[in-house]
UniProtKB/TrEMBL annotation:
Matches recorded under InterPro entries: HicB-like, TA_system_antitoxin, TTHA1013/TTHA0281-like
Domain HicB-like antitoxin of toxin-antitoxin system: 6-56
Pfam families registered for this protein in UniProt: HicB_lk_antitox
Position of the signal peptide: none
UniProt-listed Gene3D superfamilies: 3.30.160.250
Lineage: Bacteria, candidate division CPR1
Name of the featured protein: HicB-like antitoxin of toxin-antitoxin system domain-containing protein
């Protein structure tokens, strides 16, 4: 059995709960009422993603990932 490690992004939702995604696996998204539930659900989603990718002989990203935090300031331009 091959073991993979992926970075996931947890986003708290205003109405409660979390949305979680895997940037290295496009479209691999889940959610949960708690952080623990969201992480469990994304593990299930990743497993399903990998099974489907193998079945259809699609490439599976397994390279090194880096996480960088950037700051962006967006302004509103008058007349735009």
């Amino acid at each position: 059995m091959v073991q993979y490690q992926y970075l996931v992004v947890l986003i708290p939702q205003e109405e409660g709960g979390y949305t979680v995604s895997v940037p290295a696996l496009p479209g691999c998204i889940s959610e949960g009422e708690t952080k623990a539930a969201a992480l469990k659900n994304i593990k299930d989603a990743i497993e399903g993603y990998l099974v489907t990718a193998r079945k259809h002989k699609l490439p599976i990203f397994s390279g090194t990932q880096e996480l960088e935090e950037i700051e962006v300031v967006a302004g509103v331009t008058k007349g735009a």
